[in-house]
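Hello Y.,

Per our agreement to keep a running log of every chain we model this quarter, I'm adding this entry. I've kept the format consistent with earlier entries: sequence first, then predicted structure.
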Amino acid sequence: MLGEMDTELWIDNRAVAALSGETFETMNPATGVALAKLPRARREDVELAVASASKAFTGWSQTDPNERARILWKAGELVMSKLEELAQLEVLDTGKPIASARLIDVPRTADTFFYFSGWATKLGGETIPVRGPFLNYTVREPLGVIGAIIPWNFPLLLAARKIAPALAVGNTVVIKPPEEASLTTLALARIMAEAGVPEGVVNVLTGYGEEVGAALVEHPGVAKISFTGGTETGKIIMRAAAGTLKRLSLELGGKSPNIVFADADVAAAASAAVTAAFYNQGELCTAGSRLLVDRAVHDQVLETVARGARALVPGDPLDAKTQMGPLISAEHRDKVLGFVKAGESEGAKREAGDPRPGGDAGYFVNPTVFSGVAEKMTIAREEIFGPVLSFDSLEDAARIASATEFGLAAGVWTRDIGKAHMLAARLRAGTVWINTYNRFDAASPYGGYKQSGFGRENGRAVLDELTQLKSVWVALT
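Predicted structure for the entry above:
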């Protein structure tokens, strides 16, 4: 597919070069070799894309909702018809295992379009009883141009999460994919055009955050920014968006606790903890990177988790048997290895994971497990976004679990359902899983507390954030 597709910007349903003619390279994380050259968009390209999306907004927002629903459903069907080529492209670009891309990334992308196609015809208002001879009712109207900025861990799926609900309610989109992994977003834009999306409704600008992203955030023609990425970048976006008072949704970092009580199904909890921490190479905002375990079952869980980590041998992500691929870049690999060094220097014990596999090809890091992690250690507080799991005994589950600046997700493992619900109520997290972990669905809202951001993606909740509420009064006499 890579050889057949244009690696250019996508504006007005056409592939175009950046106005400057500049390009940059995107790398294959498994080999460290250049994969493609992409246009380096700048502020002048943002102007073109926003103008295109603004022009398209009038027509798209007034399109029959049934037609919008049909197009979104068709997009989902086309995604599934191209499952293998999209999966391989995502693997080449991100390094994730091909089995995950085939079973999760591509099907969940299609499911997102299927789900939100249904909402296109169902978003209504209400009539409100008011004093006097008046009819008062509300309607929800689209915002306008949505600026979407996505990260590199799930670029295809997260592009769909931004595009599908925005289009369902009549918005248009300018999306900036991650510079490290832009190819499937470009492919998705072409799929949208094939599904029948008119010119200007979906536009893609490749480039760097400080150039394209910053220009989108500052642009007065952009009604809202929907950002998924790091907390520090989210703070920069908040400050920059103040100048135009545009709406924001920020899905930011996480340092999620995974809590195992002695009365849990310990074998199931320990096995799931491995996947919770190391799925997608640990490059997951909700990764269960803080495993808090009751002292009574500490050794049993530690043994299982360490054994599971050692069994996850990084390998060629295009091999269907590979369970762990490389990290996204050399820079990110070195950052993760820095956390490993910090854990050791601050006194944690490394139970599994010779951090760097042999050889220099690719950006690989072995799954790493630490025990004896104190609350104030770096690896217990900061988001690693890589295959490093901290491990400690449970003393005060709610207090320890909430003792970070993040609040994205948490897991609770216990057979005592009353205790599970009470703890879920106390945890300051946007998602709490009980006796499971990392479950997602297009119908279920997702987002964070505290410095994990605000706003929600997925479900009915995201549609409120992509529309504005209008109150209409009609005099009856």
